[in-house]
């Protein structure tokens, strides 16, 4: 009897510990505007946790469209058709090339972003959370017919992102309109 009570207590203690760790880590990895906060996790801590996942095979533009967001709430897209995933595209008043170069410059100056593909009308970047190494795939498409920059940001792993992808795009938008 004492042994089973100890086992139950250990399981409950472990569950509470894991929950507290997840909350703390989530708070540490929320995306803030690029100019507001620069945080680097210790390389030792970062090497302990790496949840990068596999790069999706459906990235890119096909007939002027991004891949649709999955049914999970960890993706936003300016081409989304439902309220959960939909986010406004960026509008611009400069020359299209100038506006798109500005997006590229913002990404180049964002510490946790790595540009993987930079073409005249398409940019693909990976954002890595500093502590746990979660990777989000972020795409920008210069839609010159509509005079807009379309955007899509999606987590590779998990179901909920606690709004990180939406916050990231809004932070980039705020910097774009400065």
Gross morphology is globular
Query: Count of helical segments?
Result: 4
The mean pLDDT is 81
**Main sheet: strands, sense, barrel:** 6 strands, antiparallel
Beta-strand share of residues: 15-25%
One letter per element, helices H and strands E, the order comes to: HHEEHEEEEH
State the secondary-structure class. Answer: alpha+beta
- Gap from first CA to last CA: 66 Å
Provide the gyration radius in Å: 19 Å
Q: Percent helix among the residues?
A: 25-40%
The parts where pLDDT drops under 50 for at least 5 residues are 30-47
Total beta strand runs: 6
Protein name: DUF1499 domain-containing protein
Keywords: Membrane, Transmembrane, Transmembrane helix
Pfam families: DUF1499
InterPro entries: DUF1499 (IPR010865)
Question: Which key terms come to mind for this protein?
Answer:
single chain; 178 residues; alpha+beta; six-stranded antiparallel β-sheet; DUF1499; membrane; DUF1499 domain-containing protein
